[in-house]
Amino acid sequence: MSKIERFDVGPRLSEMAVHNGVVYLAGQVPDDATADVKGQTEQVLAMIDKLLARAGSDKTKILRAQLYIADVADLAGMNAAWDAWVPAGHTPPRATVEAKLAKPEWKIEIVITAAV
């Protein structure tokens, strides 16, 4: 049986797990919820960069991205941050859905699966 490595394990969730060369991130949300959607998205993408680096991966190895946006009217701002972050030629499969997030001040939550 392959080893499962968990990072930042808490009572409810782990921030990340690595198994069989794949890294699975928990939903990442902004620290500063006072920012607009572009700013919140930039914060979350920076968190994703740090977590992937800890697992020995990076954004060029993303296998799938799931983006949850509180208001689809904010799509352009979210996409502006995303487009500036994702490397050309490495755009992953992505789903974006409007969703009621756990805290009303959050505008974005992103879940990533990547190869190590």
UniProtKB/TrEMBL annotation:
Pfam families: Ribonuc_L-PSP (PF01042). Transmembrane segments: none annotated. Belongs to the RutC family. This is Aminoacrylate peracid reductase. It comes from Roseateles aquatilis.
